[in-house]
Automatic annotation (TrEMBL):
Organism: Thalassotalea litorea
Protein's name according to its UniProt entry: DUF2189 domain-containing protein
Ranges annotated as biased composition (Basic and acidic residues): 7-24
Region Disordered, annotated ranges: 1-24
Transmembrane segments: 70-92, 98-118, 147-171, 183-206, 237-265
InterPro entries: DUF2189
Signal sequence, renumbered to the chain: none
Keyword annotations of the record: Membrane, Transmembrane, Transmembrane helix
């Protein structure tokens, strides 16, 4: 019987075609204004979003949590272990000076671990039943971009640690410093942390979602995220404030609150991405 030597290549082509069709926003047949041109990268255009939209995203996220409670709790426990480790670090160091750098470090590495929850939300969007295995595979859907983004966040974290060490030099030398003596240290530390978090937020609020779904390069994803934040600044300030408040609540509950908080924030981030970043076709999903 003759052997069909093209069978393997046909299977590969079929697999590639299926993968391409799975990504609803493949960058083919895009309109001329789909990209906003930048000097260093292309940026996918965005929609204007109402200032109250973040509250709607949270409401939709709660609904996603109830639709996939077991997976949400599994990821919630994984997330809670990170801030729990930071709390243990603070107690072991027996000093409050590590609280600020540890909190910023958590905010920097958090987006990397949210990819699995983005996949859960994406599966719900497509009407599928999300699974833990499928969500883990999402971390390798765009490995170059996603791990490159992880390295970028790691570099930002190292920069913050160096800045924190320099700011520590301003800490008063007295055994029990007064509030007046602490003003310079607290002011500079707060401003430096706020500036770094604002930069990281602008570059990362939509970057993981874009790279996971659309398989674009990291520069396009980062440029798109920055462009969306710039064009919806007031809305993004509200969203960033809600994230900050949620994280503070999580730490106030000794990291137990993160079991619920982190899945909800991740699902809300997916809805924020859907509402903000333009697509070639309507998604029929909020």
């Amino acid at each position: 019987m003759p052997v069909d030597h093209t069978a393997g290549s046909k299977d590969v082509k079929d697999t590639e075609q299926d993968a391409k069709s799975e990504f609803s926003d493949a960058l083919e047949d895009r309109p001329d204004d789909y990209f906003v041109q930048r000097k260093f990268a292309k940026a996918i255009d965005c929609h204007p979003v109402a200032q109250s939209a973040p509250f709607h995203w949270l409401a939709l996220a709660v609904n996603d949590f109830t639709r996939a409670p077991l997976l949400s709790l599994i990821y919630g426990v994984i997330f809670s272990l990170i801030p729990a480790a930071l709390i243990v670090l603070v107690l072991a160091a027996d000093t409050h000076l590590v609280i600020l750098p540890a909190s910023v470090a958590f905010a920097l590495i958090g987006p990397v671990f949210a990819t699995g929850l983005y996949d859960v939300a994406w599966e719900l969007e497509k009407g599928h039943t999300p699974t833990f295995r499928h969500s883990l595979k999402s971390m390798f859907r765009n490995p170059v971009g996603e791990w490159g983004f992880a390295i970028l966040l790691m570099l930002m974290m190292l920069v913050w640690m160096r800045i924190a060490a320099l700011i520590y030099a301003l800490y008063p030398t007295t055994l029990t410093p007064s509030l007046e003596e602490m003003v310079g240290f607290l002011t500079l530390g707060t401003l430096a942390g706020a500036v770094l978090l604002a930069v990281v937020f602008a570059f990362s609020v939509f970057t993981p979602q874009i790279m996971m779904e659309r398989r674009v390069d990291i520069m396009t994803a980062v440029a798109t995220s920055y462009n969306a934040v710039r064009k919806n600044l007031s809305t993004m300030v509200v969203w960033a404030a809600l994230i900050l408040i949620s994280v503070l609540i999580g730490f106030a509950t000794s990291a137990v609150g993160f079991i619920v908080i982190m899945p909800i924030l991740s699902y809300a981030s997916w809805h924020a991405y859907i509402a903000t970043i333009k697509t070639t076709r309507p998604r029929k999903y909020e």
